[in-house]
Amino acid sequence: MHFLKFSPLFVFLYFGQYYLYVTHAATFDITNRCTYPVWAAASPGGGRRLDSGQTWNINVNPGTTQARIWGRTKCNFDGSGRGKCETGDCNGLLECQGYGSPPNTLAEFALNQPNNLDFVDISLVDGFNIPMEFSPINGGCRNLLCNAPINDQCPNELRAPSGCNNPCTVFKTNEFCCTNGPGSCGPTDFSRFFKQRCPDAYSYPQDDPTSLFTCPAGTNYKVVFCP
To answer: Per UniProt, which keywords does this protein have (predicted)?
Structure first.
């Protein structure tokens, strides 16, 4: 089978017959249901202030990997879009470039991967700041949810202003960061704290078996802060 790519069309040649598959950008509806403003951030995508009840829609190209959406809290930006956020700050920019600073609850995804699947997860590997739902808009795969009162219950060693750090951020050792490669670390009391409260979410970097999920390629999604 020969594979030819013509953006945004994929053409497959099989036994002399052409099969045409049209791929579209995935839509992400990002909604703030918190009682306070959230400065939503997306990589790729940028950033925007969302007051309570507001929604921001972004389109993400097929094939995008290592992407994430998160919320920032207690931000102050000037007219040029420069400033600072207490959690999730991305280099002092309203329009994010790159990733945010811990602690921040993450919706992570890779689109149109092998076997026509999207890979999706909620991650607490960078800690927790805002409760989150990450789910398909029209069903077809699992709704992911992390809405426990983690900030209130955060262990003293991990407490941060307006958030709860992951232990890797605090201690920076392989035990918590898994920097020495696959199989180099396992669950800890700190990771169990997160996992018990948010079973759907990554609680440490090698938590794949219970935290990485798939949806059919072409799915559209919603991310809800304070669901």
So the answer is: Signal
